[in-house]
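Hi, here's the filled form for the chain we discussed.

Project: internal
Contact: R.S.
Residues: 449
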Amino acid sequence: MAGKIIKAPRGTQDILGTDSYKWQFVERLALENAGLFGFSEMRTPTFEQMDLFKRSVGDTTDVVQKEMYEVRAEKGKDLYGLKPEGTAGAVRSAIENNLLKGALPLKVCYVTPCFRHERPQAGRLREFHQFGVEMFGAQSPSADVEVICVARELFQMIGLKQVMLNINSIGCPTCRAEYHKALTEYFRQYQDKLCTTCLERLDKNPMRILDCKSTVCSEIAKGAPVVLDYLCDDCKEHFEGVKKRLDALGIEYKIDPTIVRGLDYYTKTVFEFISGDLGAQATVCGGGRYDGLVKQMGGDPTPALGFAVGLERLLLIMEAQGIEIPKPETCELFIASMGEAANIKACELTNALRSEGFYAECDLMNRSVKAQMKYANKIGAKYTMVLGDSELESGIAKLKEMETGTEREVDFRADLAQALYDITIERATEDLAEEFGGEALASAMGMKR
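And the returned structure, exactly as it came back:
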């Protein structure tokens, strides 16, 4: 009897070959764009000491209290957590590997899986993926704007439309202490209406109430004091510096005093890029400063900032906006064969073509020639060639263009790669001539020479 089919865990997904090229495109574009700003890739473990996330993300956040996945290497041994976001691991790595002792600012970026136990929905899974950047050592408002520009440039390269930048400042620990007093006083008036979670937040971290998804708490939060009214002089000056630089670069933005971000480590500037293409306004990118986090995690005091983009959500927005992602190249030549000797020759030619950079295939299933040609058609092969006894004897075979049915003879004993290359160039030239006209093509070819 066949065993019961085991399905993927709820809140996870398989990324199949039909879609993986989309992920590769976005990830490659994100890393290359970050590289233009001087960010180098960092890879950190999928799981870390649980204490790392409690100290960084904050033990009063929903992430730590409700959404963390806990794992143990052995029963009764150290407790680990699957990473819920990328910043904590990047900070830990920078401290542990003495990266902050080198040239500053230190700029790193990453593509990483993350894990949060929450209700799965469109663009929000239990296993999801983030592209993020982190900058250490720079406290100037210019650093804030550069990090914002990394995200903005990525969205422009991708071709996203109607993505709005929202910014806020949540101050430093000094001015935030006064703000917390004002928030606590305000929310105590409504403590009989707050949800259970927000009642716990009231004394520990009242700013978290502003981020509550409960409709009742959200409505109450609309009348809460605004953090911008409580900024100290230094935080005001920093925020003004950010706005001046955004204005100088012609970057449109909206000040949204309700942005507090979901993690405790943020200070001063926080920002989000918002899209309305998933049915309701959705955050496609979120980030900001976390100047106290490095010291909090055992390093020397070091200003820092960064952002993260949810790749699942980004891809959904791209799909909603009709942004086409270049599809991967299909098989350039499928070599069909009749008989053992022909199959051996087909294998030899296929591997020779691959060494020259061509995507080539041959029969691996001992199919009939008819079945081989059906397979070639299914995989989208551009050209096919059939080898049999007569072809092996003469060294000449017919190369068939699948789209048009056009055939031409080639000497496969000579340089088959060069012959295929010449045919490809000839076909491309014909396509250009058809699209742009003979004179325009001749001019372009002349300029190339």
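Let me know if anything looks off before we file it.
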